Amino acid sequence: MKTTHKFLAATATAGLLLTVLLPPPAPVLAHGGEDHGGEAKASTGVALTDEVLLPKESQFLFEVRTSLASYSATYSRATLYGTVSAAAGGEGRIVVPQTGRIVGLTAQVGQVVRAGQTLAVLEQTLDATQQIGLSTERANAQAELRAAQQDYARLQSIADIAARKDVVAAELRLRQARQNAAILNGQAQQRRVSITSPVSGTVDVFNLAVGQQVNQGDELFRVINPGKLRVEAQVFAQDLAKITPGARFRVEGLQGQAGVPARLVVFSNVVNPVNQARQLILELDAAQGSAYRPGQAVNVQVVGQDGQGAQQLVVPTSAVTDLNGKPVVFVHTEPERFKIRYVQPGSISGEQTVLLQGEVNENDRVVTQGTYQLKSIYLNQ
Hints:
Blueprint: H1 2-21, E1 51-53, H2 56-62, E2 65-68, E3 70-72, E4 78-86, E5 91-95, E6 100-105, E7 112-113, E8 118-124, H3 128-157, H4 164-189, E9 192-196, E10 201-203, E11 213-214, E12 219-224, E13 229-235, E14 248-253, E15 260-271, E16 278-284, E17 297-303, E18 312-316, E19 321-323, E20 326-334, E21 337-348, E22 352-358, E23 365-369, H5 371-379
Antiparallel strand pairs: 1-21, 2-23, 3-18, 4-13, 4-17, 5-12, 6-8, 6-11, 7-10, 8-9, 10-12, 13-16, 14-15, 14-17, 15-16, 18-22, 19-20, 20-21, 21-22
Helix pairs in contact: 3-4
């Protein structure tokens, strides 16, 4: 028994010495040094390639669609956001000059009127204090008139012995008293004011009726001339360089109106302290801009003097996707091979996106449909 234990101990000792002293085993080679195997790499959960292999059958199954990247000058134009407003002489707001009651109404909604045309007649109304004050002033004027008449009559009866200057003074006093009494009597009996249009145009919507009481400062009517409109737009820092002396402007409505050219009126040098933007004022053509209305939001397209801008590489917006927080596109390089290209998107419209940077070239075939499936396959490789 002791002999067996001694033999096992000696065998273990010899094996340990061989393990320490012998060199590590070399890779097994065959046919002149060809390597027919590789070490298995531990899975890290991150794809180690920048491409996705997808058979034709799977492409049809996932309905993968592609489109060509191309250069375009359209999306190098600046797009500004503006608001339509009335130009000088294009809008008139009529307010109540004094508290009163409407006794005449000749204007109608949608009526075309000319400048100076009467729209309504207003009768002034007085409160109790004003009525008392007016009655007092009228009574005082009547009393002064009677006193002046009596004094003048007395001096006329003794004209042969009265001083000439006293007679002249009495005559002037009587004349002034008559004028004051006539003015106060006219104010008491006639307090009507005609309300006229300050500009030519169309009467906008209003809610007034004969007999209605209105207060001083209330808006009665608004007359708008659709042929005198302007657009106010805000220009931010990134678009300042595109507002050049030769730039051309085109206004596009957000409610289906056709785009119309616009003329630059002024590009303000004052910067808005709130949003750091500069104001751009454009004027619409009287005939072509009649479809727009004050208060309407519009887009303002800014293009170069020749109507073109710098050529920029664009791809369909649907081709740009997100991979690990970075924007990418999938480029179809071979029938069953798709490469990942990291890009930096620029201006984005509803259909196309400008690529400022990235390894995408003109006529590269980018994936526009099926990017979700390609991304899933890539992340699970």
